[in-house]
Amino acid sequence: MVVSLFDYGTGNLHSLSKGFEACGAVTRIDDDPLEALQADAMVLPGVGAFGAAAEMIAPAANDIRAALLSGFPCLGICLGMQLLFESSAEGGGRGLGILPGCVRRLRAHRVPQMGWNSIERASEDPLFAGMGELVAYYANSFVAEPADPASVIAWTTYETDRFAASVRRERTWGVQFHPEKSSRDGLRILRRFLEEAAK
User: Is 180 a catalytic residue?
Assistant: First the structure.
C-alpha cells in the first residue's frame, strides 16, 4: 500500500514515514494535495500551524473534501486532525469541514501539553480493535471541539480539560496524539489504519 504524507513545508516527516514503513507500507511525501489523492491513502501529519497548513490545502480543499466524503482513506494526526474541522482559534484559514466544529486553545495552566496521556474509548472502532488500555504521546496547544459528539471515538483529559482524542467520519480518522511517537501501541494504530484503508 502506498501512503502519501502531505507536506505542509514546516516539519520533519521522518518518524511518521518510518512508522508506516515498519507496518509494511510504502510512503511518499507530497506537497501537492491532488497528487496525494493518487496514493492508496493520505495522511495529514501533525506538524505546523493551522493557518499555514490551511493555506497549503486551500486550492484543492474541494477535491480533498469530495474524496474523503466518497471514502478515500485518510488519517489526520494532531494538526492534521484539526484540519478536518471548519476553523481554528490558532489562526485564519478554513479547514476541510469534513467534521462540523472548531478548534480551540487548551483550557489548562500548562500549555502546550507535552507528554504521555491515557485514551478513553467512546465506542468500538477498528482503529483500536483488540487493544487494551491505551496511552499515547501528545504535543499540542489546541484541540478540536466537534459539534457532534457522536463523531468522537475516544476522549482524553489533560489537567481538567476533557477533549476529543480521536474522531471518525466514514473512512477518515483523526487522532490528536502522535501514534508515530507512541511506541508499540502507536504502531498498532498505524497498522489498524492501513488494514482499514486496504478494505
Answer: yes
Q: d(Cα 3, Cα 44) in Å, to the nearest integer?
A: 11
Question: Tens digit of pLDDT for each residue in 25-84?
Answer: 999 999 998 899 999 999 999 888 999 999 999 999 999 999 999 999 999 999 999 999
Is 178 tagged catalytic? yes
Number of domains in the chain: 1
192 sits in which H/E element: helix 183-198
Query: Containing domain of residue 61, as a range?
Result: 2-198
Catalytic residue among 145, 178, 195, 196: 178
Residue 76 maps to which CATH number? Answer: 3.40.50.880
Question: In the prediction, which pLDDT does 30 show?
Answer: 95
Strand (E) or helix (H) holding 137: strand 134-140
Catalytic-role residue among 23, 74, 90, 180? 180
Residue the block writes with cell 482499514: 196
Flag whether the pTM goes above 0.85: yes
Q: Cell numbers at residue 164, please?
A: 476529543
The answer to whether 86 is a known catalytic residue is: no
Cβ contact 167:147 at 8 Å: no
